[in-house]
Amino acid sequence: MLSLSELLQKYNLRPRKGLGQNFLSDPHHLSKIVEAAELSADDTVLEIGPGPGVLTRLLAEQAGHVIAVELDPAMVHLLQSEYGDYPNLTILHADILKTQITSQLLSQPTTQPTPYKVVANLPYYITSAVVRHLLESDPQPSCLVITVQKEVAQRIVAEPGDMSVLAVSVQFYGQPKLIHHIPAGAFYPPPKVDSAVVCIDTYAQPPANVPDIEFFFQVVKAGFSQKRKQLKNTLAGGLRQPTAVVIHALKQAGIDPTRRAQTLSVAEWAKLSEVLLSNQN
């Protein structure tokens, strides 16, 4: 089996900075990712950004079916040439953000789709967008094992006091946990910062009761629009409502109007959005 450097040399390829390509080939770190996915022969895996396929091969050896979605046409050619004869591997040349994840894409029955898992090494500039896209998809993955910048991983698993829009977005749909740290030197080329593996186990039903998800996230984004300010001010500005109306809603939800967005839990955001929506009607 060719090494990463040998694969790239064989196809005369170099990592493309514009696509955020930093390839992981260290067996120790790769094994941690595969272990986190807890794969069996019954599993379908959606891999995003497989690159030269070093991780793809390991996934295909354990999962029942792997769908590898790659944006770079040169990498698609490499994948098809090197791994095209794997009977349980489907290689797609596509942009995951423009791809609707359907039962047909996953080669599953439309009546009762089988749960699938996501494994992805995500470039920083699309991390939030891809994670949100996956968590909002229908059918939804049962879990996501994502390799992201260490700082992003810490934001995803944050607790009240250090919350962000990203943390609320992820924790609304699932329970994240930090699995493994990967130093920058384990990648080629080495990025400027370290990375980490995060596993997000999605909820069958979100534990927070939210009658209008779109409005819920509108409230959250408004709250974080100026996170150094108190909620009564950021929400009034972000939602274009009188401060007195916002203060009343916060008190109804049992939230001190002088608190800041990063201190609220997902459940508190859910209660607040429910009150605000109810007061509008």
Arrangement of strands in the largest sheet: 4-3-2-5-6-9-7
Multimeric organization: single chain
Helix content: 25-40%
What's the helix count? 11
Strand content: 15-25%
Task: Give structural attributes.
281 residues; alpha/beta; Rossmann fold; Helicase, Ruva Protein, domain 3; 2 domains; 7-stranded mixed β-sheet; 11 helices; 18% strand; elongated
List the helices and strands and how they pair.
Blueprint: H1 4-10, E1 23-24, H2 27-37, E2 44-48, H3 54-62, E3 65-70, H4 73-83, E4 89-93, E5 116-121, H5 127-135, E6 143-149, H6 150-156, H7 165-173, E7 174-182, E8 187-188, E9 195-202, H8 213-223, H9 231-239, H10 243-252, H11 266-280
Parallel strand pairs: 2-3, 2-5, 3-4, 5-6
Antiparallel strand pairs: 1-8, 6-9, 7-9
Overview of the structural elements:
The protein is α/β, with parallel strands linked by helices and 281 residues long. It folds into two domains: 4-202, Vaccinia Virus protein VP39 (Rossmann fold), CATH 3.40.50.150; 213-280, rRNA adenine dimethylase, C-terminal domain (Helicase, Ruva Protein, domain 3). The chain has eleven helices and nine strands. The chain has helices at residues 4-10, 27-37, 54-62, 73-83, 127-135, 150-156, 165-173, 213-223, 231-239, 243-252, 266-280; strands spanning 23-24, 44-48, 65-70, 89-93, 116-121, 143-149, 174-182, 187-188, 195-202. A seven-stranded mixed beta sheet has the order 4-3-2-5-6-9-7, with helices on both faces. A two-stranded antiparallel sheet has the order 1-8. Strand 2, helix 3 (54-62) and strand 3 (65-70) form a beta-alpha-beta unit. Helix 5 runs parallel beside helix 7, helix 8 crosses helix 9 and helix 8 packs across helix 11 (266-280). The longest helix is centred in the last third of the chain and has 15 residues, at 266-280. The chain is elongated, with a radius of gyration of 21 Å. The model has no long low-confidence stretch (mean pLDDT 93).
